[in-house]
Design a protein that fits this description.
The complex is a heterodimer of chains A (118) and B (111).
Chain A: E1 4-7, E2 10-13, E3 19-25, E4 32-38, E5 44-51, E6 57-58, E7 67-73, E8 76-81, E9 90-97, E10 99-100, E11 103-104, E12 108-109, E13 113-117
Chain B: E1 3-5, E2 10-14, E3 19-21, E4 24-26, E5 32-38, E6 44-50, E7 56-58, E8 64-68, E9 73-78, E10 87-94, E11 99-101, E12 105-110
Parallel strand pairs in B: 2-12
Antiparallel strand pairs in B: 1-4, 3-9, 5-6, 5-10, 7-8, 8-9, 10-11, 10-12
The chains are: A mainly beta (118), B mainly beta (111).
């Protein structure tokens, strides 16, 4: 299967600072990328969907000004957690898919990023 | 709205014993169904998927799943569990890449 690389795998930051997480599709061009958040012992919750070259679509309840998503190229999407607070501490996972014939193909997941805000 | 229910939060199985993880879904059309496995602090690895055709799907690591439309189920099975199978398992439903996940089942393997 295709490879999606997420970086960093772990990050600790001070409250009030911003953190950027990168999601790269290594061997294919991802027209669509998805960002999920996973709380401890919980399932994955979709935060937003981003299509290359356009604004991200955020799920209800997700603050778009706090979670900035950029999908400027077909191989890279970034999630920036702005002015992070301890309640933003979580496991963030991205996935990427390729659009073929107008249909999104199977999604491939990154390894996830453990964010801890102190 | 689509949803996924995994009724078992934890399951403990002896090494070498058989395994079945339950998954029920709600979806308005013919679903795409997936099972993923997640080791601690890691991303998700796809075990298998169902789109159409044969309702018994074979996956990696000796796993299989059976789609039963009448029961809205997609249970995951393995005939003989290995200690390395201990992990969290997620069932998901959706339109191929936009997925709704269940809450997961933690599999513990006892010696």
């Amino acid at each position: 299967g295709a490879v999606v690389s997420q970086h960093p795998s772990r990050v600790i930051c001070k409250s009030g600072t911003s953190v950027k997480i990168e999601c790269r599709s290594l061997d294919f061009q991802a027209t669509t990328m998805f960002w999920y958040r996973q709380f401890p012992k919980q399932s994955l919750m979709l935060m937003a969907t981003s299509n290359e070259g356009s604004k991200a679509t955020y799920e209800q309840g997700v603050e778009k000004d706090k979670f900035l998503i950029n999908h400027a190229s077909l191989t890279l999407s970034t999630l920036t957690v702005t002015s992070a607070h301890p309640e933003d501490s979580s496991f963030y996972i991205c996935s990427a898919s390729l659009r073929v014939g107008g249909v999104n193909t199977e999604a491939f997941f990154g390894q996830g990023t453990r964010l801890t805000v102190v | 709205a689509q949803s996924v229910t995994q009724p078992d939060i934890h399951i403990t199985v002896s090494e070498g014993a058989s395994l079945e993880l339950r998954c029920n879904y709600s979806y308005g059309a013919t679903p795409y169904l997936f099972w993923y496995v997640q080791s601690p602090g890691q991303g998700l690895q796809l075990l298998l998927k169902y789109f159409s055709g044969d309702t018994l799907v074979q996956g990696i690591k000796g796993f299989e799943a059976e789609f039963k439309r009448s029961q809205s189920s997609f249970n995951l099975r393995k005939p003989s569990v290995h200690w390395s199978d201990a992990a969290e398992y997620f069932c998901a439903v959706g339109g191929y890449s936009t997925l709704t996940f269940g809450k997961g089942t933690m599999l513990l393997v006892s010696p």
